[in-house]
Amino acid sequence: TGIDTTDYDRPFHIDDIGFNLTDDFHVYGLEWTPEVCRFYVDGRLVRTADTLDFKIGINILVGLEFNKWLSGKEASEVVDSDIERGGAPVNYLVDYVRTWIQPEREPRILYVDAVNGSDEASGLSWAEAKKSINRAVADALAGDTIWVAGGTYPDHISIHGVRNLRILGGFQPGATDAAERDPAAHPVIVDAVFGHAGLSVTSTENVVLDGLTFRGTTRSWSAGLDLKGPIPDLTLRRCDILENTPADGAGGGCFIAADNGPIAVSFENCTFADNSVLGAYPSGGAVAGRGTFTARFHGCRFLRNTARAAGGAINLANSGSLIHLSNCLFVGNRVLDGLATIEATSGSLLVDNCTFHTANKAHLRLTSAGSIAAPARVTNTLFTGAAGTALDLSGLPEPTHTLLRNCLFDANGTHVRYTAALQSADAINALTFAEANQVADPLYTDADAGDFTLTAASPAIDAGTIDTAPPIDIAGLPRPIGGAPDIGAHERYLAPPSRYRLVNISTRGIVGEGDSKMIGGFVVNGTQPKTVLIRGIGPSLGALGVANTMDDPVLHLIRDGLTPTPVAENDNWEQQPDATAIIEASRFVGAFPLAANSRDAALLITVAPGSYTVHLENRGTQPHAVGLIEVYEFR
To answer: N or C, which terminus of the chain has less Cβ within 10 Å?
Structure first.
């Protein structure tokens, strides 16, 4: 009351404070908890607000809510310029920010069930399941895991400021083990609410989403997945991003906005299908971004995505950013006014063991417009059925490294364009930065039916380079099967000649301190190297009901001989560079999954013929605890 609004022409929310905001110095405070916002003047509580009103997945800053309170505007009326200029009647200084850290506690499982759940429930059991995924996320703390039952969720998942969170889809209500879930049989479908993004992530670390589908985004400047930095570690596994068609903006399936901090995101075995951008700034039908980010796509499928401008599937135009594609399949993507399925004008692009089939223009275009960085490469990749140029390098300065290696081209309008159109293998390999490329029919099993596996006579078999080949293919099968990897996303798999072979050995026992290790051994016969999966397990046994298990096992692999030789060791499987390959290898050999955030140890390693010893060391808090050694033949 008594506030002069002459200069500002708007009322203010602060009532009965007895002074004009512009008259004197006062201390204003905002306390924001998961339950309520409290606004203070000079230490006196003057207003409260329900936080639920702005938990809608939009990136809301504390300053925005504070300015809304002082300025008399509603949240929908506050714009960036209000924050930048100070939407309050005078400028103010943020003196300090005080935060509270959640004390140490045991990680929890939260349950979500679209049919039987209630957002008023605790979420701590299937009987008390939440109804909304986003409400479970709002209640989650660092280290928690959310189990989501199959169903359709009109929802917006907003993950802001949470660390070490897992969201797993594909459960039947009542499931008691994560291994019971099946995302294909019990799909979790997140339908965009009012056309907003299905998923919004910002300021998080070590977050995993596994087995969810996001579809139906239509709002301008939204995307199926809306990622805002900083995000140092985000993984989406077995997720489908479908039918997102924002009216304006880039990246219909996923937009990576790294303006406010770097982003590192991995997509594993995900599908981007039928996404499109056709309005303003229509680049990257499936994926686009800005700022400095790293995006890795392994075993992903890009199907029938469309952009009006650059990149029917992916647009990379950011200096300092990197996109790595391995074991990916691109089929039927379209670009209207642009030039290619993937357009890269800046940053670094790595393409290994991918398959490109049918495009209305080019499959892949690299240009110097924004200076593609030296690490760019294309290896072990199939390019077939492009109406235009399969690989367009026109305008690219001559690379000083080998950029194009062990690729195969067939049935394209033009196979490669550099300073001129190149239609023969000899012409392509005459480039100073190209080698071992072919022009030949890859002999797909049935491309028209979507089967891009290779038939027995395919020239792509054993024609790749091992240097850049991932250890498994798009189907999770080991690579290589023969002496060299195949070209393309699929490795041709032949059944073993004998049905009688040893594929797994294991032993369980008590592991003591120091030199009181558990010891196992195996022998690789023959003349060829063999890839084995070795696991030293303690914490994950506890999840299976085994008591007194090791909490920090360490694996040591030693080559036997007159002088035993250390080969490798591991203390935490999730810190391995090939952690994703370890997950896929475990599935392939039929091993039970290692628990997320466990400190189990694992090695996926290729060894020469010989005798080997495995030591399992106990570095945990219990001097005598149960541990398990497993050795699997992988290939």
So the answer is: N
